[in-house]
Amino acid sequence: MIKKRDFILAGIIIAIGFISLICMKFFRKPGGYADIYVDGKRINRLPLSDDTTYTAETQTGTNVVIIENGEAYIRDADCPDKLCVHMGHISKKGDNIVCVPHKLVIEISGGEENEYDVR
């Protein structure tokens, strides 16, 4: 038979797990770097721990790279399809954003491992 104390104990365990998850999500220090490559050559390395804006200028156009809250993303690009802008935020080791028209790649190195095997 399940008693009132069993429900209380289960509620406490769930609450502790939920609070731990929130602490890990919001209070972790981002590690790693966003390496920016143009035509296969690294042109810059931005730490994910510092919020910054970087404009990557290539021979074929520009991309505005944003580092914010431990994540990197492209806010704006002057390429025709703008697929790189819609690729979203990256923060785990091995994640990348690619802008084919500009031959630009942003890849996360160091820091937290990706929990999915995407390679």
Overview of the structural elements:
The chain is an alpha+beta fold and 119 residues long. It has 2 domains: 29 residues; 77 residues, N-utilization substance G protein NusG, insert domain (mini-chromosome maintenance (MCM) complex, domain 2). It contains 1 helix and 7 strands; from the N terminus they run αβββββββ. The strands form 2 sheets. Strands 2-1-7-6 form a 4-stranded antiparallel β-sheet, with no helix packed on it. Strands 3-4-5 form a 3-stranded antiparallel β-sheet, with no helix packed on it. A hairpin with a 4-residue loop joins strand 3 and strand 4. The longest helix is centred in the N-terminal third of the chain and has 23 residues. It is elongated, with a radius of gyration of 20 Å.
Oligomeric state:
single chain
Level-2 CATH architecture of the largest domain = Sandwich
Shape: elongated
Helix share bin: 10-25%
Low-confidence stretches: none
Our count of domains comes out at 2
Q: How many E-type strands?
A: 7
Calculate Rg over CA atoms. Answer: 20 Å
Keywords summarizing the entry:
single chain; 119 residues; mini-chromosome maintenance (MCM) complex, domain 2; 4-stranded antiparallel sheet
